[in-house]
Amino acid sequence: MSDLRSSKRISAEADDSSRKKARKDNDMDEDESYNPYLAHRQQGNGKSHHGVPSADSPFAGFQPRKTTAEQHSKVENLSDNAFTGQPHSQKYFQILETRRDLPVHKQRQEFLEKYHSTQILVFVGETGSGKTTQIPQYVVYDELPNLSGKMVACTQPRRVAAMSVAQRVADEMDVKLGEEVGYSIRFEDMTGPKTMLKYMTDGMLLREAMHDHEMSRYGCIILDEAHERTLATDILMALLKQIAARRPDLKIIIMSATLDAQKFQRYFNDAPLLAVPGRTHPVEIFYTPEPERDYVEAAIRTVLQIHASEPEGDILLFLTGEDEIEDACRKISMEADELQREVDAGPLVVYPLYGTLPPQQQQRIFDKAPPPLRKGGKPGRKCIVSTNIAETSLTIDGIVYVVDPGFSKQKIYNPRIRVESLLVSPISKASAQQRAGRAGRTKPGKCFRLYTEKAFKKELIEATYPEILRSNLANTVLELKKLGVEDLVHFDLMDPPAPETMMRALEELNYLACLDDDGELTTLGGLASEFPLDPALAVMLISSPEFYCSNEILSITSLLSVPQIFVRPANNRKRADEMKSHFAHPDGDHLTLLNAYHAFKGQSVNDSHGAKQWCHEHFLSFRHLSSADNVRAQLKRIMETHGLELVSTPFEDKNYYNNIRRALLSGFFMQVAMKESSGKVYRTVKDDQAVLIHPSTVLRTEYDWVLYNEFVLTSKQYIRTCTGIRPEWLMEIAPTYYDLETFDDGDVKRSLMRAAEKKRRKAAMKSDR
DNA sequence: GAGCACTGC
Predict the structure, then answer these.
(1) Is the pLDDT of residue A154 over 80?
(2) Which of A227, A513, A553, A594 is deepest in the core (most CB within 10 A)?
């Protein structure tokens, strides 16, 4: 119950003190954007002491935050680039023409007026409106960061988007990427001292905020794709709402698709709204008259019907996961061949699409549809069978038909047993609309929904629950503490999570000693928040020098932060398992991962080109091992910055592996299971869930106690990536959690008591001698 | 003896 107590105390605190402190720390003038006392910070050419452009500047006459679309246009038309002083390229003027053709351009003046009238603006633009590329540029011309010294930031939920949009906008502004326009994502900061406009991932802005609670580098922050409601976007919105109250000079724009616009407006104290139409084609929607029993079968049938009877155009089918997709692809291909023979249908190529597919194979979806089999024959088409990845992350032009069975895999969190799992669930109305929209990108399209119209209207929820309601929040709570949020219960989130989820997170962090009993961030917690890791992993890494194995734990942590490195193709499972057994360590999967990594590194040192081939032969993922290497380098840098030593126990030492297993426990002592007296079933400590060790394990020794990395809920309850441990270690390494007083009577308690007794006797014998 | 929707730091 300690969690309840500590969280009550947290909520009882008013956040006045933090607000006052922040106000004092904040060096911005409250009433004026351009503080003369800050003039010394400003750099660049052609400006006066007050941040207003001088008479000889191309921006002469511009009053920051009072500019007009006409002024912008004039400067854009100049033969020289007003920001760099360089002559504009030919390409620049070509792009400028297409930019002025975008729907959003017509409303440039209207946008500026709204922007001037308010601190927070909600901007709604459909796909194809040009909002992501244009709005930030309009803001740059109005803010003139080259004079004010305050950047414009635009966040994206995904890295690729941040990178590609930044490149596009750099071209549009005729500047070099990384100079006036740049981007910042994990592993890559493409910005410089001249950067005015910065595209970045939402997670990256959150990281920055941990060290700059006022986000003082920015004059305007634009949150793009806010309707996606990622964890980071939700936290940023709440944070920005707070900061906006302290920093009247900070402007905020929330950009979103139409559906939730009013919800955003209400949340931001009735902020004004500007809507811009998109540029898409109409999509005709068809529903099934009766509910379908087997949606995969119905989907395959629909695809084949479209192919047999509808005019030219590619097909996009949404299914839920890899297996289902591969299976459907096979069936569609087979049936389509038959159609070709029987009714002279055109050729149909089928491509699977999902996130874990290697990038080269993902690229194939952009191949052109096949030509007719013979001259004058029916045209060919392609059919893409995809997960939700095609709903948001990837857009494919040329899609005319969408088949939507109405399901996707979604993460859900059960705080009672502290388990996140994936569940096939019905999609939301917003999702269904997004999917349908994929059919109208190049010409009018059709969307076949494999559910009834009544089901759409009555059974589908409006929008998918935001991620914050479906996640374990331990990491989020730690981040918020580091962000200086004192009062978590009254932190004004758009959709506050269930109290039980919050309690669980506080409890977990308290056990990990990241929060003290008063809910305050401890030194350990502060350090843990510096790492881009879940709290248990961060604590394990920070504790590892005490166990003389920080080098090894650093590697294991990195390997646990990337997708599975062991590859197991469906047609070659036996051989893959054989290869994996070469790396197997009898004490568990963590040590097996380490063995594979060490072998990979040994290979890379000798022959970096051969490493790829070597991985292929050994059924290891070169991509994921390289990415683990990348993560490792980042984590290592953070360790060095904070004076955490990188040490190893000599390999010849008999405690080399024991030290590693003990260090694993320093973070994962809450993820431990004990074998029941009979059979193969284990029970998790405290949560008391019956679990099986996942069949992918290398554990062969019959351990009574194991620690696990992951609890997976599929056909059964499994624990995955397991390592054997000794019960006496638990009480030694995590005495508070394993305080026997707190355990209910039962097998677990009895077994722990026996271990404690054995240990006492051993110690007594030692001291007798 | 099984499966990994998708992101992100």
Answers:
(1) yes
(2) A553
Protein CA at A323 to nucleotide C1' at B4, angstroms: 10
Residue A138 CB partners (closer than 8 Å, separation 6+): A72, A108, A111, A112, A115
Binned at pLDDT 50, 70 and 90, residue A606 comes out as confident
Beta strands in A585-704 (DSSP E): 672-675, 682-684, 690-693
- Window A524-553, strand B contacts by Cβ < 7 Å: 532-533
- Scanning residues 711 through 730 of protein chain A, those with a beta carbon under 7 Å from any atom of strand B turn out to be 712, 714-716, 718
Ramachandran angles phi, psi of A93, nearest 5°: -70, -30
What are A58-107's pLDDT values in tens digits? 998 899 899 999 999 999 999 999 999 999 999 999 999 999 999 899 99
Give the per-residue pLDDT at A31: 38
Looking at the DSSP assignment, which residues form a beta bridge with residue A201? A156
> What's the whole-number mean pLDDT along residues A608-618?
85
Chain B bases near protein Cβ (<7 Å) = 1-9
Q: Is the CB of A579 under 7 A from strand B?
A: no
Q: What is the pLDDT of residue A375?
A: 84
A389 touches strand B (CB under 7 A): yes
Distance from CA(A423) to C1'(B2), angstroms, rounded: 17
| C-beta atoms surrounding A651 within 10 Å | 8
Statement: the CB of A186 is under 7 Å from strand B: yes
Q: Please, are residues A615 and A537 in contact by the beta-carbon 8 Å criterion?
A: no
**Coil, helix or strand for A712?**
strand
Nearest nucleotide over every DNA/RNA strand to the A205 CA, judged by C1': B9
- Quote the CA–CA distance of A605 and A598 in Å, as a whole number: 11
Owner of token pair 């990337």: A562
Residue nearest to nucleotide B3 (CA to C1'): A323
